């Protein structure tokens, strides 16, 4: 009879152990569904990290495969480090091109993760619009400089021509020019001198 009791207790223990594992498995699925709802609500990375850490602590000694949870947690932590780095770049006054490049890298690297990237996508669009406006402004400035240089050279050339004309007029008035025109004028003066 003692032997039957020990066998019965062993079966009862195994039965209860299996039930506890089944309940824990069900509980784990419930926890992961809760986590998924947080992802759908697009909560912050910090909240996702907190939830995953809590799930890991709760189920680490039960015998459930937590590798996918650890992978998600690692990826979200990397995202947080990258987004903190971007904020630091922004605070230090990095150029538009540097910030755009950093955001593109973050978005490409973490596109298929559970974190919400909508804020970063909006920021990237805003920076790209700002960059396009700045480039348009710079192009206009360069075009203006090119026009100014062209106008300056044209003004210089016309100034040289006008200086030459002024010089000819001055020389003519002083009688120093030996142009064909001035020679004709001098000949006419000589003829006028001989008129009665």
Q: In a few lines, what is going on in this structure?
A:
With 196 residues, the protein is an all-alpha fold. The protein folds into 2 domains: 24-93; 117-196, no CATH class. The protein contains 6 helices and no strands.
Provide the gyration radius in Å.
Answer: 44 Å
Number of domains: 2
> Shape from CA axes?
rod-shaped
| N→C terminal distance | 171 Å
Spans of at least 5 consecutive residues whose pLDDT stays below 50 are none
Main sheet attributes: strand count, strand direction, barrel closure: none
| Helix content percent band | over 70%
Structural category is mainly alpha
Which characteristics define this entry?
single chain, 196 residues, mainly alpha, 6 helices, 84% helix, rod-shaped
Describe this structure in words.
With 196 residues, the protein is mostly helical. It folds into 2 domains: 24-93; 117-196, no CATH class. Helices cover 84% and strands 0% of the residues. The longest helix is centred in the C-terminal third of the chain and has 57 residues, at 118-174. The mean pLDDT is 77.
Write the layout of secondary structure elements.
Layout: H1 2-40, H2 45-59, H3 67-91, H4 96-109, H5 118-174, H6 180-194
Helix pairs in contact: 1-2, 2-3, 3-4, 4-5
């Amino acid at each position: 009879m003692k032997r039957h009791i020990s066998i019965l207790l062993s079966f009862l223990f195994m039965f209860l152990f299996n039930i506890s594992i089944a309940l824990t498995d069900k509980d784990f699925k419930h926890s992961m569904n809760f986590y998924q709802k947080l992802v759908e609500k697009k909560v912050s990375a910090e909240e996702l990290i907190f939830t995953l850490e809590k799930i890991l602590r709760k189920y680490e000694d039960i015998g459930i495969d937590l590798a996918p949870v650890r992978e998600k947690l690692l990826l979200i932590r990397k995202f947080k480090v990258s987004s903190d780095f971007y904020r630091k770049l922004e605070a230090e006054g990095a150029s538009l091109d540097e910030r755009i490049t950093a955001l593109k890298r973050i978005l490409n690297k973490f596109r298929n993760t559970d974190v919400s990237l909508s804020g970063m996508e909006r920021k990237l669009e805003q920076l790209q619009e700002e960059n396009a406006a700045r480039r348009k402004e710079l192009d206009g400035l360069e075009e203006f400089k090119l026009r100014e240089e062209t106008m300056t050279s044209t003004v210089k050339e016309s100034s040289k021509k006008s200086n030459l004309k002024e010089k000819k007029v001055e020389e003519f008035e002083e009688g120093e020019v030996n142009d064909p025109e001035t020679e004709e004028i001098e000949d006419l003066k000589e003829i006028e001198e001989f008129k009665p």
